[in-house]
Amino acid sequence: MRFDEIDGALRQQPTWQPPPGFARRVARLARVEADSPFRLVDALTLIPYLLRDAVMDSAARLSGLGWMLRQYWLLLSQL
Amino acid sequence: MADDERRLIDDCLAGDEDACTRLVDTHARMVGTVIWRAIGDHRMVEDLAQDTFLRVFHALPSFDRRAKLSTWIYTIAHRVAIDHLRKVGRWRQEAFVVSSDDESAAGIEDLPASPLASPDALFVRDEQVKLVRDALARLPDKYRLPVMYSAIDGLDYSTIAVMLGVTVGAVKTLVFRGKRLLKDEIADAF
């Protein structure tokens, strides 16, 4: 295989596309984490995203969901 | 730094959720791609990209505005990916150090300033793509990551150098040496 063919093959590796709503969800999560004192209304707005993750979930995503639920519980416990 | 970027950072620091969303929107594709190339597991990319941006927002107050925001964010993405590889026991090397073998690699001056493939090379067959992907997985991380990153559109050698914490010359050397090893790996597969 020639070097230019290797370069071509490397460039055909896929790029990642964020899922719809990704940026808004992350921004909201960051704000919830940064807020002090914790604001219940912000935490509640995360519920649809958690449900969406739960619906779309597969075994591989459970750890991520578990992490989010843990964060959520920690935040709620500050109330 | 451009005024727009400065304003975006100020708005994010002031807690403006729309500004934070814009920042994530602007960089999410590249952050996810860097992570995907580094870890090779598509299923973990979304969680790690989210983790990257949470770290970005957490560290934003201490961001040095003389630096380029995108480079700083991609560096955090790279570190999140390395942390993940370390956590799952797949991190096989300790530093991107150029060895004497790498230094003696002849032909490095032929590398383009910006890594671009020739138009003909864009029409490689699917089996060649798979061959390269399999061979890449067998490369030491020291070479695999620079080679992977250099093939991402929009990542130049100077950005990769900051991400890896080495000089531009070292990145060129590691990419060149990595491609030679890749070529040897593929030849050995037959």
How is the CATH topology of the largest domain in chain B named?
A: Arc Repressor Mutant, subunit A
Q: What's the CATH superfamily of the largest domain in chain B, by name? A: Winged helix-like DNA-binding domain superfamily/Winged helix DNA-binding domain
* Poorly predicted residue ranges of chain A: none
Percent helix of chain B: 55-70%
What structural class do helix, strand and pairing data of chain A support?
Answer: mainly alpha
Largest sheet of chain A: none
Helix-strand layout with pairing:
The complex is a heterodimer of chains A (79) and B (190).
Chain A: H1 3-11, H2 22-34, H3 40-44, H4 47-56, H5 62-77
Chain B: H1 3-13, H2 17-39, H3 45-59, H4 69-87, H5 100-103, H6 126-138, H7 141-150, H8 157-164, H9 168-188
Structural commentary:
The complex is a heterodimer of chains A (79) and B (190). Chain A has 79 residues and is an all-alpha fold. Chain A has one domain (20-77). Chain A contains five helices and no strands. Chain A has helices at residues 3-11, 22-34, 40-44, 47-56, 62-77. Chain A is elongated, with a radius of gyration of 18 Å. The N and C termini of chain A lie far apart (62 Å). The mean pLDDT of chain A is 72. Chain B is mainly alpha-helical and 190 residues long. Chain B folds into two domains: 3-87, RNA polymerase sigma factor, region 2, helix turn helix motif (Rna Polymerase Sigma Factor, Chain: A, Orthogonal Bundle), CATH 1.10.1740.10; 100-188, Orthogonal Bundle (Arc Repressor Mutant, subunit A). Chain B is 65% helix and 0% strand. In chain B, helix 2 packs across helix 4 (69-87). The A-B interface holds A 1, 3-19, 22-31, 33-35, 58, 60-61, 63-64, 67 and B 15, 17-18, 20-25, 28-29, 32-33, 35-37, 42-47, 49-50, 53-54, 57-58, 115, 117-118, 120-124, 128-129, 131-133, 136, 147-148, 150-153, 179, 182-183, 186-187.
